[in-house]
Task: structure prediction
Amino acid sequence: MKVELSLKITLPTGEVGEHLLSTLERDELSLETLGLSLQEGKALLRDVQQRLIEAQLDAFLDAQRSCTTCGEAHSNKGKHPIRLRTAFGAFEVDSPRWRRCACGADLKVTKTFSPLAALFTGHVHPELLYLETKWASLMSYGLTTALLHDVLPLDATTSAVTLRNHVLAVAKRSEATLGEERTNFIDGCPAQWAQLPVPDGPLTVEIDGGYVRSYRKPGVFEVIVGKSIGSFSREERGGGGTPPPPPGRCFGFVQSEGGKSRRRLFEHLRTQGMTANQHVVFLSDGGDTVRNLQLYLHPQAEHILDWFHVTMRLTVLSQLAKGLATKAQIEARRVAKKLDEDDEKYADVAREQVEPDLASIKHYLWHGNTFRALELIRSLEFECDVPSPSKELKKFERAVSELRVYINNNQAFIPNYGEKYHQGETITTAFVESTVNQVISKRMVKKQSMAWTPKGAHLLLQVRTRVLNDELEDLFREWHPAFRPPVPLTTAAPGI
Ligand SMILES: [Zn+2]
Result:
């Protein structure tokens, strides 16, 4: 069997062009010779793309060829090649330079102009740029490059480095739209805020820090990540039935990069519909950098130490307590060494002694009683202060001291968790997948060899969070209004 594939293009002038694209030969039928091979498909797409681009540009230039006032054709001054990378191959396009018409009607500052200049705002086609950005934010630059080469007739020179440059350019462009940094972002006064319509339910914002390996110098640097979750909208609640849990939207950045961290966070919350009279709850692990970031962002904000981080520390303490000697072991040691019962040399702290204290500390913290919790922590520290502590006791004591500092520093952010819990309020976001894991670990620390510059990590995070939030297409549509017109919901195909 012989199959001839040709392309028929009817230009706006009515002129018809027909081009033979390729000829396919098929002899014996087997599963692998059935239909198009990937290779044939790629070659076909590349050919169609080239013909289509040529025809479109020719038609575009023809339409602009004559002066709009006198109808005289613009004369040629020269041309230069433009290399355009598309999802279906890279092509060199001649960009002509024309002399402005002598009638003077359009004689501006320059005597010549390039009719294609306004069209080619970038040399990478948005479709390709979108694919590169989307997949490189989910997996490594190298894997993305290999995948795209596998399925598309991509230009052979497209390497992981080319791709990285494209992706970072997208991130920089999205960064450029961020407004100036300010101390306060919400204007007005409580009286004005009261006039606003009743807002949706509280907006919960989880902020956390994670670490990635540094590329230039040994060590790591901190990346701030977070997720905001709206609890419900007034309309949903009125509609009856349980509304589906609203999806969280994540954000991430490196604080030293580009500054404006507070503006970044504010804009993130604003696009989620945050209003001046809305109840906003910030949940964090109490780190200074994170806390300073969230303060003053919103007048109605409540700042809470995430219960998850409190329990994490208490769990570590319980583990360490398990390493301590039991009363029976301490007594046996004393007998073996023939020491007096009040001899200081055998003084130790028994596991049975501290475990009830740890339970009480947890209980007090759960009810927001930091005063009693701190009292107990201090007395526990005092008990552990023996003349010759064991290695295990030293470790335990250090952890108790750390807990004291932690609770002391975060007193103002420790609410009555128990009460909030019973009222159905959010006191932790740990029940969802860790944001640090979702935003950073899966892409940026999954391999030991992965190392980043703060700038590279920061920029990648800007596109990665957009992809995770399913917002990348909207961003591209802002830049290129005709990019992937939204499909009406009823006929929408399942997304990838
Ligand atoms: Zn003219």
Summary: The chain has a mean pLDDT of 85. The beta strands are 2-10, 16-25, 76-86, 89-99, 112-113, 203-213, 220-230, 249-253, 280-284, 301-305.
